[in-house]
Amino acid sequence: MSALTKRLSKPFNIQNVKRTLDFKLNKIENLSLEELKVTRSQKIMGKAMHGMFHYQFIESLLEIIDKKGLDFDIPVLFAANNENKHMPGAYADEELEDKYGEGNIQAYTLNRIYSQVNIKSLEDEVTSTGLAFTYNQMGVQVALGPNVKICTNLCIFGAERYMSTYGRSEKMPTAGRMLEVIGDWLQDFESIRAQDLKTIDNFQNTVVPDNEVMEILGDLYTMRVKRDDKKFGKQPMYPLNQGQITKFATTYLVEQAKDPSKIFSAWELYNFATDMYKPDQTDMPLILSNNHTMSHYLMNRYGLN
Known about the structure:
Layout: H1 3-8, E1 28-31, H2 33-37, E2 43-44, E3 47-48, H3 54-67, E4 72-73, E5 77-80, E6 90-92, H4 94-100, E7 108-110, E8 113-119, E9 127-136, E10 139-148, E11 153-154, E12 162-164, H5 175-187, H6 189-204, E13 207-208, H7 210-228, H8 242-258, E14 264-265, H9 266-274, H10 287-302
Antiparallel strand pairs: 1-5, 2-3, 4-8, 5-8, 6-7, 8-9, 9-10, 10-11, 10-12, 13-14
């Protein structure tokens, strides 16, 4: 039995699972990998959705990290529902509820999962490395980048540290191929971590005067309008929706009011946004893609590549 298998093999009696879920009461439900494995697995035409079940993808991902000799935490998983009637994010089978009890986790199929593995190797006081993933009805996404410890904000620096099987022209063909690329990433972990720290320094050393923050807000609003209004045709996804743009602006203005003479850095502005890329504030299939879009915008605007 490997060290990882021992870490994952906590006492868990499937015959006595009393955990219940209530997505009407809770927008997000937290669960362990062991709990996810006792839910019903989504099949399409008799096969696992996206070529492998969610728990299989997660176990394979953790196994890769473990084999690379990296120190990491077993992640907490987040599950959510949505309004898709054809394939909802979470739903319970009535017959299984009759068997196990109303809301019992064993009666549920969970199609919207998000989590972030915290890799502690080469961490410092401020950041570690996050390997985040979402498994949902649309497909699978993965991103690797600095994790700001105090707020668990994930930073994505460059298209080469972000993969998706949906929603972009450079799609990955399968979740299995993603796992192969993750192995390549982690094989080069030391140099990636060093480059990430250098990019953080670049962000922190890039000052953004108030007039430029106003320009950024204007850009964010324009991107949102052009994407949502069909008269502009097909447009790329925006980093923040309208409510999030308002929150971004409010956060900036409140912080500025505390010290009117302060000039913010690109790092601080990026973290205003990444603070919203969480399961309870952004639709799960968009968490990583919107984060990547925001970092791409700032890195291009200020030459931080």
